[in-house]
Amino acid sequence: MRSISLFFRSVTKSLILISSLSIASVTMSFAQDAGAGAAIFKQKCTACHGIDKKVIGPALKGVHERHDEAWLLKWTKNAPSMIASGDPAAKALFDQYKPAMMTAFPELSDDDVKNIYAYIKAEGEKPAGAPVPPGGPEGKDAAADGEVSNFMLFGLLAVIVIAFLVILVLNRVIHTLERVMLQKQGLITEEEEEIQKDRFAGLKKLSKNKKFIFFVVLLAIIFLGTAGWKTMWNTGVNTGYQPVQPIKFSHQLHAGVNKIDCQYCHTGAFKSKNASIPSANVCMNCHNYVQATDKYDGEISPEIMKIYKALDYNPETRVYGNNQKPIEWVRIHNLPDFAYFNHSQHVKVAGIECQKCHGPIQTMEEVYQYSPLTMKWCINCHKETEVNHKDNAHYDKLMAAHDQLKKGQKVTAAVLGGLECGKCHY
Amino acid sequence: MESNKKYWKGLEELQNSTQFVENNKGEFSEKLPIEEVLNEAGLSTVAPRRDFLKALGFGLGAVTLAACNPAPVTKSIPYLVKPEEIVPGIPNFYSSTFKGQSVLVKTREGRPIKIEGNPNCIITKGRLSAQGQASVLDLYDVSKLKGPAYNGNTTTWPQLDQYVKGELNKVQAGGKKIRIVSSTINSPSTKRVIADFVAKYPNSKHVQVDAVSYTGIIKANENSFGVAALPRYRFDKADLIVSFDADFLGTWISPVEYNRQYVSNRNNTSLKNKKMSRHIQFESGMSMTGTNADTRIQLKPSEQGIALMNLYNALGGTLAGSKKLTNANAEKSIMLVAKELAAAKGKGLVVCGSNDVSVQILVNAINSLIGSYGSTIDVANASYQYAGNDAEFVEFINEMKRGEVDAVFFLNSNPAYDYVNAKEFSDALAKVKLRVSFADRQDETASLCQVVAPAHHYLESWSDANPLEGYYTIGQPTINPVNDTRYAEEGLLIWSDNAVKDYYQYIQNNWSANILSQSGSTWKELLQKGSVYLGEKPAAASAFSRDLNAVAQTIVNQSNALVKGGDNAVELSVYENVAVGDGKFANNPWLQELPDPVSKVTWDNYAAIAPKFAEKLGIAELDMVEVKTDKYSVTLPVLLQPGQAIGTVSIALGYGRTKAGKAAAEVGKNAYPFLNFVNGTFQTHTAASISKVAGTYELAQTQTHHTIEGRNIIRETTLKDYLKDPHAGTGKGHGANKYDLWDKYEQPGHNWVMAIDLNACTGCGACIVACNAENNIPVVGRDEVRRRREMHWIRIDRYYTFNEGGEKITEENEIKDLENMDNVSVIHQPMMCQHCEHAPCETVCPVIATMHSSDGLNHMAYNRCIGTRYCANNCPYKVRRFNWFNYWNDSRFDNYMNNEFTQLVLNPDVSVRSRGVMEKCSMCIQRIQSGKLQAKLEKRPMKDGDVKTACQQTCPTNAIIFGDGNDPESEVSKALQSERTYYVLEEINTMPGVGYQTKVRNTVEA
Q1: Cβ of B110 under 8 Å from any chain A Cβ?
Q2: Would you state the pLDDT for residue B102?
Q3: Which of residues 228-267 of A touch B (CB under 8 A)?
Q4: What pLDDT is recorded for position A26?
Q5: What is the DSSP string of B904-935?
Q6: Where in chain B is CATH 2.40.40.20?
Q7: Which of residues 66 through 85 in chain B touch A, CB cutoff 8 A?
Q8: Distance (Å, whole) CA B432 – CA B420
Q9: pLDDT-based confidence at A238, cuts 50/70/90?
Q10: How many CB atoms lie within 10 A of CB B505?
Q11: pLDDT at A191 over 90
Q12: Class of the B716-731+750-1001 domain?
């Protein structure tokens, strides 16, 4: 089922993508400049500016009406020097938005800046009721993506079932009609009907065949036994566990697209037994500025708003309140309490990639449990994985002893006592 | 050279009573009802087959249904704003101060979970007492007040402040007295706050009184040398220690410090230098200090003063009024001691536990005669650990009675419980208009006060202390206040309209103005180090020149007063015991379950009398007796205490709390009313009578639990023999061949081993509590201890033995000894899992839940254990413990672990064991693993001292040493190379990982 739904999802996704791309290309065709400007705008400006909204700096709608082009060019490329030189307009702006000061962008060419302002102009001129930022429909549909595919899936299933039923009924009707016709023609006698009625005789005979019964029972036992055995072994194994989280945090976006290092947020992984879920102040390092307004009609993303809400942070006034409420994440990887696991041992000492246990985390929109986290799984890895003893003086003595005792044997965690009960259970 | 001495843990074992034999027959002391089950409802029932099928069907159905339940949703809630210094999963350590000793507090995710001594502390040198270890549990005590209270109802701080201030103004206007009553305060900042308060309200006065008082010594020092403080005793400089009833290793003044000093002359290093101090103890009851003495002599309280007078005379003094002691043995010993003291001039030390000024003046005179001042006693570097003044407190009560006091504040003081006459106190207190208590709970005194302004626990607050001259310690908060509490000092600051109302600011100001300016260190450095020592003043030889005749007269009169006629007359002495102390910690289940070092009784106090004396009185063990003076009487069970002086009875203080909380409720009887106010001080001796009353009471005594069936597991020798042959007493040198059925374990990496020096272990029990805290060991309660189900991973076995006195051990001598039950000596032996290389437990486990590791440990996998208990049965050391219940989730064990709040104290690195599994000492494997990991992270080999077990870390005498046996340079390897090393039950070839060093006694043959 899962795979079917996934298939449908991907199909709908690609359909939507194609259609939105075609729409986007139509939109873009009348403003080449604005298109190039949009990319730069997003890259360099969105941290501090919105089109309709004041962020850190002013809202940029209508900026070309407030200042002339030469001033804008100069200002954009090196605002601090303009303020320092005492330009009255620059000074007024600075005073208004103190202490934040516009960053200098000397790397931008005049064309780049012009493109940016072309984009801003184009955006600003769009009717207020229906602003369609590029990528807007995409984002919207992506949000509704899950519902659509589910609905389609069930609809399709219903259609298939109904079609099947219709075929069945029609078949029956045809059969009856044929019989009536034949009877009318006198082609079927009562005897024949008798024989027809006894068409299960073969089955009856078969049911008295002891060999057959034996094999059927045997097959049933084997089938049920295997199924039972498998279920029992997998009791409490939650591979694929994917609970709904309070914030739709996407590892795919953060770790996959933006390539943020895992350690940036999960700071404990190198130092502690807990990799630790980042505290909200770590989120705020970026989301102070990154608000994904471009995807939500200039509004702050509702998911990012959740962080603000937890911290009781007002993005307008940029002030933290007192009514803070922690974010209650749902734990996905639940190791039993009697098993001790230390991240730093595995990540720092052994140098194991996060993905080895957590799977392709950089592609997960929502995180699910990738590994079974069973003892067998731990043990297998301990048996196979060679100890990362290079450049670690801790292992020198052990390696020397090992060479003496079991020369040539692969030095796995198991060889160094990694399978002993007390190494994990205490 | 193997000794043939007979060692026994309890009288029942010595006499091999039927009860004892019966109890030790099976694995479990109580009878398992197997036969009844078989006879009644078992095999002979009407339809067992149907019942079986029903049960089977139900069971299968229930299990299936239970298995259908999906895994519960677990929340994981990170910090919103993570404090920079906290990394979840990694402990932080903060320095704090407990009873003036600098300590390190281990916190995990902001919760204090363990306390260790601070290695910088000059008192403890990184070690800690049992009470210090247990003090972390008090933070999570559910009996504490949740906020301020007025007349028993909750109130708010502003309301409370308004009320108290209004009342204080009225009192001030009326011109009546204000009193602040506290136990000893040696905090420089608190003292200053009180001084500021007194300045604002000139009618007020600070009265200090300690439940167990040291006024006698302080007054005597004032009288003798003009210094009204305790001196600093230097047991490390004494070659000969003579103690009269002073339990200096257990409870007297500063036991952790004295333990360390005392053992420094008796441990391995000292013995290697062929040096060992000699310790002679004269006492009535058997104290922990007495158990460690080389020679112990019984002395009745009434004869203590006389004995000291005789000693003074024998040393060259001339005191009138001395007479021969009735106890010929003691009389003879005093003369010998005098000779020894004279010989050890300048290296001797006489201490006395009496709180009588006259007796202490006499002791000062003796110490002066033998030249102790300036060497073993330091008056210049005084100790401020106790400063209570009994007479002032009695005067305070009289003031209240006369109606002169209109306001009283109780700070860390509980006279309604520990004053001799609670009724007199409460009647007098009723006349006071404003009664304020700073107690953290509605205790005996607080419940008599209108206003209770609960103060923070010390782990929640800034605090400081000045326990020794020139030594200052600082305490910083390790957790936000759990309840709505407030500094007592802040209250006083607010009520006295001080300019600085924030106590933290006040402490900082005080330190920078008065202490840091002298030491030249900064506030940050101070917090890092935990203490400041301004250095030792040069010890001055104090001259003693007083006329002692009046003193002698008082002593004679008082000793006569202790003797009363009549058949049932006894001399009663009350004492502080090691675990519960003066009763402040009574509501601490860890301490209540810590067996008394001598009697091994938990959860109760008792009347200890000598076996021979009991026989005379017709009293058997555990009979109830009534101990009566003209003022007070209690009914307590009897404990037959070998070594107790005939004609005396000892009762522990600190029990019988009525309003301390759940754990302290119905535990023992209050013995404080037996204190005797004589000669200006509260004294612990009094004349009483003892009579048998109906009934018996079973004490929860662990002494013969886990007995080792008379096997030869204690090895001891005398200093004389040791000097001749260091191997003396170890039983080595027979050249026994070792045969091995098993393959040797390869231990290429580490080989974790332990060395325990029996000559250093004084039996204080700090290790037991440290282990409790580190390893989440449940408290089982009195009833379960009676069933031999205590869970302690480490126990201290206390063995009695008869003094040989140069005679050979023969059966006749043994019978003679049985009569002469008093002449016993004692050995303490810490016993925990020996991590045998050929562990008998491992071979019998049907599910391989316990097995050996490549680094010399015997692992126990709880989740694999199915509870057959074969291992416990097969363990020759009897160190395995079985979880009979889910102690953490069972309302019957309402001690600490079943409470969600108190569970915060649990160590998150150690699993809490479930019902039905075995557990035992793991050698703190969580510490080994984290030490190893730390070395790996730092890419360096492990070094000695990276890993310390909890028991080792806290041991005041360094008797326990743990480390890598494969490292020849490690401390433990060196300790195990000692000639004194032996292994317990070596002969059965279990090859234990724990080596013991023989006990050496510095006896002098008479």
Answers
A1: no
A2: 93
A3: 235-236, 238, 241, 243, 267
A4: 45
A5: GGS-TTSPPPPTT-EE---SSHHHHHHHHHHH
A6: 564-701
A7: 67, 71, 73-82
A8: 20
A9: confident
A10: 12
A11: no
A12: alpha beta
Domain boundaries for CATH 3.30.70.20 within chain B: 716-731+750-1001
For residue A375, list chain B residues with Cβ-Cβ distance below 8 A: none
Residue A276: list chain B partners with CB under 8 A: 78, 87-89
A330–B76 CB contact, under 8 Å = yes
**Is 3.90.950.20 the CATH classification of the domain at B215-383?**
no
Which residues of chain B are in CATH 3.40.228.10 domains? 215-383
**pLDDT for res B725:** 81
Phi, psi of A324 (to 5 degrees): -90, 140
Can you tell me the distance from the alpha carbon of B300 to that of B313, in angstroms, rounded to the nearest whole number?
A: 20
Q: Please write the tens of the pLDDT for every residue from A364-379.
A: 999 999 999 999 999 9
**Segments in chain B below pLDDT 50:** 1-2, 734-735, 806-811, 1006
Decide the pairing of beta strands B648-652 and B463-468: unpaired
- Residue type for B543, please? A
Kindly report each contact of residues A6-10 with a partner whose C-beta sits within 8 Å and lies 24 or more positions away, as own/partner: A8/A149, A8/A152, A8/A153, A8/A156, A9/A145, A9/A146, A9/A149
Paired residues of B436 in beta bridges: B409, B451
3-state secondary structure (DSSP) of residue B406: strand
Judged by CB atoms closer than 8 Å, whether chains meet at B71 and A236 is answered as: yes
Name the residue with tokens 């006395």. Answer: B352
Within B549-672, where are the H helices?
549-562, 589-593, 611-617
Determine the pLDDT at residue B519: 83
pLDDT of residue B616: 87
- Cross-chain residue pair B909–A391, CB shorter than 8 Å: no
> Three-state DSSP class for A49?
strand
Interfacial B residues in 912-941 facing A (CB < 8 Å): 912, 922, 925-926, 929, 933, 935-941
**Could you report the per-residue pLDDT of A282-295, keeping only the tens digit for each?**
998 888 888 887 78
Best residue of A235, A287, A288, A426 to probe chain B, by most B CBs closer than 10 Å = A426
A268 and B73 within 8 Å at the Cβ level: the answer is no
CATH of the structural domain B564-701, one choice from 3.40.50.300, 1.10.10.10, 2.40.40.20, 2.60.40.420: 2.40.40.20
> In chain A, which residue's Cα lies nearest the Cα of B926?
A426
- Predicted model pTM: 0.83
Q: Which residues on B lie below 8 Å from A280 (Cβ)?
A: 78-81
**Contact call for A394 and B749, based on CB within 8 A:** no
Residue-level pLDDT at B438: 93
Name the minimum distance, in Å, from the CA of A297 to any CA of chain B.
Answer: 28
What pLDDT is recorded for position B547? 80
Q: B88 vs A401: CB contact, 8 Å cut-off?
A: no
Q: Hey, is the C-beta of B853 within 8 angstroms of any chain A C-beta?
A: yes
- Is the confidence at residue A1, as pLDDT, over 60? no
Asked whether the predicted pLDDT for residue A9 surpasses 60, the reply is no
Please indicate whether, in this complex, the C-beta atoms of A421 and B77 are within 8 angstroms of each other: no
Q: Nearest CA to B112 among B458, B588, B479? A: B479
CB contact under 8 A, A330 and B864: no
Give the per-residue pLDDT at A399: 82
Q: Confidence band (pLDDT; 50, 70, 90) for A381?
A: very high
- Please, what is the angle between helix B488-495 and helix B503-510, to 10°? 90
CATH tag for B149-208+388-468+470-533 (out of 3.40.190.10, 3.40.50.740, 3.20.20.105, 3.40.50.880): 3.40.50.740
